[in-house]
Task: inverse folding
């Protein structure tokens, strides 16, 4: 308990560290407290002899702490024990031999653990061992025999050379070992053990074989039952097929019909599906169904009764079509009974009727194919359209003359669009060529051309349609518009109506190009001439608004058209401003200013509405639009345009006109009143358009 007590007089922490590591005061160190508690004590030797001359020098305490046995004493005891084995017992009593027994169960367990069984005969023939450790050379046939050899005394004789005395005196046999006899006995024991192990393994094998044969018997019984069911089903299928063949004979009183044959095939498919699926449906259908199908369609006219047979063919499609072939997109007639049925039985009737069909009478043929498009295979439909229908249409288009034929070509071509679609593309080029030839002598006053061309607008590609219009229609319209005479007092509008009637047929850019080239120069020239002769501004206003109402909103929204009408407003405003001192109709200046204000406001509202629609469309398409990018009022619109064109737009501090804030737009001073921009002129404020304002600021 006082171990380490001296530590209290120091600053050490060794005792605390030992306690943290599990040390208990009063016990030894180590995991099992096997360490010594007391320090090693020295023992004084009795004399001056060497170490150990006076006995053990260990103290009592060290003997208790380390109780070990002296190695010399231990060796002496071992020697005496081995020596006593070579001597006879002094008491003369014989030691009883000790026997070890092995039960059969132990041998079986040993045999189950040992996977490889080695026979003694095989062991003896494995290797030859020569033993030269003794006086004589000895030969062994395995290493295991070395462990069984017995050393005999050198002066002893072999077993074969011993001679027993013949006298009746009792003679004590010498204590020789009998290695040969022991070897033979051990060999017999090993053979017996191996035989027991082999018999046990053979018994286990036979038992496993019995279990395996039992399972095989169960499996074969199941296979036998399945085969019996298959044989029974095949017999019933064969009876049904033979019954069909019997009823198909000419001399049969109850002939087989197509509906009855379909019910028989449905029975085969429902009750004997495996046999039906594994059977050769093509040969079965060829032998039974095809003759009935030919008889069924013998009097059929597809153009008169297009739905005849669709119901029965749909039923046979579900019975005969090869699903595996369909999944791979195959067209092998030898592997699909339904495809072969359509090709060999149904198609000859279709070929016959198409050869007699007139392409201009397209409705019956289109209705017929529409009724069968979901029944017949796709490749057969393609064959009909490509090999039968298209050549007839192509030949008819070649014979068509747009100047003499009274039936429009679109009436017998367009019904084929849902079925043929892109297959009709090769016909469009000769159609355009014939139409172009027919339009060479055409005049815009003839409205029949529009009726003929209008159905083709959505059929031709946009590029080919625009090219056709530019080549054949636009020059004629330009010529007609060039002949238009603009007379405010007696205006004839027929030529203008002929041109403007083609809006929607020709593109807006083409129409605007015609107006810029053939209409607006004459129109502005007439306006200038009219303004220079002391006009009635009220009539001019009506004339301006009347012409503007002749155009659609889409044309008016075009920048070029908008600029032309704004130019007319600017001309009128300049005319009013320049006649300040001269006599002028009362209220003319105010009327023109109001007209300008109203028209600019309409333009602004239309632009704002278009931008709003564009923003809504972009939002619907998922394109984000910043709130600040959409102008909220006219001032914001001007500010946005100024930013786009790098023009300074800012208010003039402390200056107003009629209560309106003045702004600088570049080098120009402006103010905004009810959505109209007014620019400071020489003597008055002139309303102007936003585009004109941008052009002046640049």
Result:
């Amino acid at each position: 308990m006082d171990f380490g007590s001296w530590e209290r007089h120091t600053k050490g922490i060794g005792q605390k560290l030992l306690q943290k590591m599990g040390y208990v005061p009063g016990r030894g160190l180590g995991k099992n407290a096997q360490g010594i508690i007391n320090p090693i004590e020295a023992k004084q030797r009795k004399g001056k002899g060497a170490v150990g001359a006076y006995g053990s020098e260990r103290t009592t305490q060290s003997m208790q702490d380390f109780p070990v046995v002296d190695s010399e004493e231990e060796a002496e005891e071992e020697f005496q024990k081995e020596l006593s084995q070579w001597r006879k017992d002094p008491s003369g009593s014989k030691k009883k031999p000790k026997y070890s027994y092995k039960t059969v169960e132990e041998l079986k367990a040993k045999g189950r653990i040992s996977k490889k069984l080695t026979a003694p005969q095989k062991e003896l023939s494995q290797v030859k061992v020569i033993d030269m450790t003794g006086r004589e050379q000895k030969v062994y046939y395995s290493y295991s025999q070395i462990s069984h050899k017995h050393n005999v005394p050198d002066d002893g004789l072999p077993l074969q050379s011993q001679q027993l005395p013949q006298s009746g005196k009792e003679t004590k046999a010498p204590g020789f070992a009998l290695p040969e006899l022991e070897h033979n006995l051990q060999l017999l024991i090993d053979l017996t053990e191996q035989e027991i192990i082999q018999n046990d393994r053979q018994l286990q094998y036979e038992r496993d074989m019995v279990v395996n044969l039992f399972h095989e018997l169960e499996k074969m019984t199941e296979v036998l039952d399945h085969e019996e069911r298959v044989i029974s089903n095949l017999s019933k299928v064969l009876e049904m097929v033979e019954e069909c063949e019997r009823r198909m004979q000419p001399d049969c009183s109850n002939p087989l019909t197509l509906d009855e044959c379909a019910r028989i095939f449905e029975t085969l498919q429902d009750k004997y599906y495996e046999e039906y699926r594994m059977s050769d449906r093509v040969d079965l259908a060829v032998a039974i169904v095809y003759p009935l199908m030919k008889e069924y369609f013998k009097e059929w006219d597809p153009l008169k009764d297009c739905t005849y047979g669709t119901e029965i063919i749909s039923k046979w499609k579900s019975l005969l079509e090869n699903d595996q072939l369909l999944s791979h997109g195959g067209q092998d007639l030898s592997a699909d009974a339904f495809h072969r049925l359509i090709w060999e039985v149904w198609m000859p009737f279709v070929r016959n009727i198409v050869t007699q069909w007139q392409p201009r009478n397209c409705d019956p043929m289109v209705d017929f194919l529409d009724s069968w498009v979901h029944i017949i295979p796709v490749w057969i439909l393609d064959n009909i359209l490509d090999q039968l229908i298209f050549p007839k249409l192509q030949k008819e288009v070649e014979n068509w003359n747009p100047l003499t034929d009274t039936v429009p070509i679109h009436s017998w071509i367009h019904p084929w669009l849902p079925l043929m679609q892109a297959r009709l593309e090769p016909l469009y080029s000769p159609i355009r060529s014939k139409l172009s030839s027919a339009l060479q002598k055409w005049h815009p006053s003839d409205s029949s051309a529009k009726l003929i061309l209008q159905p083709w607008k959505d059929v031709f590609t946009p590029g080919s349609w625009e090219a056709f219009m530019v080549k054949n229609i636009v020059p004629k319209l330009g010529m007609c518009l060039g002949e238009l005479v603009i007379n405010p007092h007696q205006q004839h509008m027929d030529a203008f109506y002929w041109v403007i009637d083609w809006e929607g047929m020709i593109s807006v850019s083409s129409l605007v190009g015609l107006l810029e080239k053939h209409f607006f120069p004459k129109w502005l020239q007439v306006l200038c001439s009219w303004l220079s002769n002391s006009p009635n501004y009220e009539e001019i206003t009506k004339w301006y608004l009347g012409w503007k109402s002749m155009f659609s909103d889409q044309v008016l929204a075009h920048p070029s058209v908008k600029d032309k009408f704004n130019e007319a407003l600017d001309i009128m405003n300049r005319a009013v401003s320049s006649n300040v001192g001269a006599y002028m109709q009362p209220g003319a200046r105010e009327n023109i200013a109001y007209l300008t204000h109203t028209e600019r406001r309409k333009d602004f509202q239309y632009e704002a509405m278009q931008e709003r629609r564009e923003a809504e469309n972009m939002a619907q398409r998922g394109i984000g639009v910043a709130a600040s990018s959409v102008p909220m009022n006219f001032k914001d619109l001007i500010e946005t345009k100024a930013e786009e064109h790098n023009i300074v737009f800012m208010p003039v501090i402390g200056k107003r006109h009629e209560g309106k804030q003045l702004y600088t737009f570049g080098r120009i001073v402006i103010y905004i009143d009810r959505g109209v921009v007014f620019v400071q002129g020489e003597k008055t404020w002139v309303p102007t358009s936003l585009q004109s304002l941008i052009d002046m600021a640049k």
